[in-house]
C-alpha cells in the first residue's frame, strides 16, 4: 500500500515564514519551513539525497534540496549527479509519466537542462527551463540548492518526487507520496526598492556586463542610455567593452545629464571603469581584473576607495577563474602591507565588482570571500581580505520588486540552455564601509509605475544585454572638513530607519533626532553586540558593562561588531 504524506498550511505563523523565501542561493530563510521530507540514509549508489523542503508564494513553487555531497547541478563534476524533480501538476497519478507512484506532467532534468512535458497523453514534448521560469541557485557547486518554479500550470494540490538517477536514489521512498497543497492566501512580503539614494552623499557603484560592446551598438544603445541614466551611479564597472575606446564612451555619455569626466578603458581585458571622480593610479591585477584607486573628494569623504573591476574566464574554465581570484587576493594582501606594487592607507575601502562567471567550483567563490589561495606557490599564502581580518562581504542584491537575485539569463532560450544564474557580484570590505541599499535592475520584472518613474521600458534590460546591472549604495565616513561645514556626519538623516547588519564589523550612521547614551541605544541588541566604537577608539563593551563611548551623536559614524547577522534593526527605537 502506498503511504500518503500530506502537507497543508493551516498555521498563520507558518504562512508568514513562507512569505520570506528569497531565491538567492542562501538558505537561512528555510529554517522555519516545516514541509520537509527526510530521506532514508545510505540508500544511494552515488550522491545521497538527504531531504527536500517545499514552500510557495502567489507566483512560484519553491523547492530546496539537500544532498550528501557537493555537486554541479547542470554540468559534470567530481561527484557525478543527475538530479530530477517530477511534478504531478494535476494531482492525478493516472495521467502523465508514471514514476515513483505519481503521474508526472513535468519532469525537470537539471543536468541535461530541459523539462519533460507529459501533460499531453498523446505527445511528449521537451521544454526549456524558461518555459516554467525555473530559477535554481546557487550557480556554483553546492550540496544544497533552492529552485523557484512558476506555478501557473499547476493545480492547487500537487505531488512531488525527487530523483538522483546515477545513484538511483529517490525522495520519497518506500512507497510514500509527497503531496503539497498551495496556500493561495499568501501575498509576498516585499517592499519595493526604489532607485533613489537614501542620502545624496552615499557612494553609488554599479557593475554591468553590457554584452559585446553594447555601449556602441546602434541596435541597443538607446536601451543602455536609459538604463545608465536611471542608475545615476557615481562609479560604474562595465565588462565586455574590448572594442569600446575612449571616444566611444564619450559619445555614449553625451546624452547623460550627469557629468562623468573620468573614463578608464582596458581594451585588453574588456573592462571599462567610468567615474565622476578621478583615479589616482591604475593596476592590472590579472588578465581580466583591473584596479583603480578612486580619489574621492576630501570635501566630503575621509578616504579614497580602491575599485576592482573583474571579468574572469567563462564557463568550464575553472582553472582560469581560480588563477584570477588567486591573483586578486595576492594583490589585496600586497595593498594592505608595505612594499610591492601597491600600498594603501590603512582602512581604505575596497570593492571588487563585475561579471565573475561563477558557474563552476565553489572554491572560487570562497577564495574571493575568505582569501583562500589555491596556487600558493605562485600567489602566496592568502589570508582573509578585509582590514580587520574578516571575510569580504558579498552584497546579495534583489530585483526591485521581487525577492529574486539572479543577474543573467539566456536570450532566446530553448531546451538545453542554461537556466538563469547569479554571475554578477559586488564584494567589499564591510569593516570600513557599509552598504545602505542595493538592487538588480531587471525591467521585465518591474511594475508599470516603477518603469515610468525611472523612464524605462519593459524590455530595456532584456534587449540591452544578457546580464542585469547590479547597484550598491555605500556609506563612507565623512571627512573632518565636511563635518565642520555641515555640523555633523549626516550620513543618515532619517531617524526612523531600519538597518541590516552583518556578522562581524559594520559602519553605521547615527541619525536619530537626539543624542543618546550608547548603553541605551544598543539595549535592544545586547545579545548580538560584541563592541561599538567611534573613530577615536572610544568603546562600549556590553559584556564588561563598560561605556567609554558615552553619547552617540546625531550625524556621526560608529563601528559595531556583531556576533551574528541582524536584520531590520532600528537604531532609534530605544
- The structure class reads alpha+beta
* CATH fold label of the largest domain: Deoxyribonuclease I, Chain A
What is the end-to-end distance? 59 Å
Q: List low-pLDDT spans.
A: 6-18, 489-496
Task: From the alpha carbons, calculate the radius of gyration and give it in angstroms.
Answer: 25 Å
> Could you tell me the strand content as a percent range?
25-35%
Quick one: CATH superfamily of the largest domain? Answer: Endonuclease/exonuclease/phosphatase
Major beta sheet, specifics? 8 strands, mixed
Query: Which architecture of the largest domain per CATH?
Result: 4-Layer Sandwich
Globally, the shape reads globular
Work out the helicity level. Answer: 10-25%
Number of domains: 3
**Discrete helix count:** 10
Mean pLDDT: 92
CATH top level assignment of the largest domain: Alpha Beta
Number of strands: 36
Write up what this structure looks like.
With 574 residues, the protein is of the alpha+beta class. The chain has 3 domains: 3-181; 203-476, 4-Layer Sandwich (Deoxyribonuclease I, Chain A); 483-570, no CATH class. It is built from 10 helices and 36 strands. The strands form 8 sheets. Strands 1, 5, 8, 9, 10, 13, 14 and 15 form an 8-stranded mixed sheet that branches. A 6-stranded mixed sheet has the order 18-19-17-16-27-26, with helices on one face. Strands 20-21-22-23-25-24 form a 6-stranded mixed sheet, with helices on one face. The protein is globular, with a radius of gyration of 25 Å. It starts with a strand and ends with a strand. The model is unreliable at 6-18 and 489-496 (pLDDT under 50).
